[in-house]
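In this supplementary section we document a worked example of the pipeline. Step one takes a protein sequence of length 116 as its only input; no multiple sequence alignment statistics are reported here. Step two produces a three-dimensional model, which step three serialises into structure tokens for compact storage. The input and output of this example are shown verbatim.
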Amino acid sequence: QVQLVESGGGLVQPGGSLRLSCAASGFTFSSYAMSWYRQAPENERELVAIISNAGDSTNYADSVKGRFTISRDNAKNTVYLQMNSLKSEDTAVYYCNAWNVWGDYWGQGTQVTVSS
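The serialised model returned by step three reads:
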């Protein structure tokens, strides 16, 4: 049974930091590129960051470049999103995604709220 379980969301003040984790099971984690998406109320889901299956290539949305860092640990079947210098516009539900040519999987999401 495939599972992607996000954790680490919460309420943080502007300028603060959070680290999201996504624990994967039920598939060959190291064969999948991993991504973080987010969706704010009344907005479409958008790609935040992506990392290759080996972890040697990353890409980011322009809105988070220099503030967010995606990483993975294939030994732990886990992908991370370190979020620094958070802004109110980063408030959203953050989703973990696993993708390869055979298909993709989604987690249930974790809420991140940036507010004073």
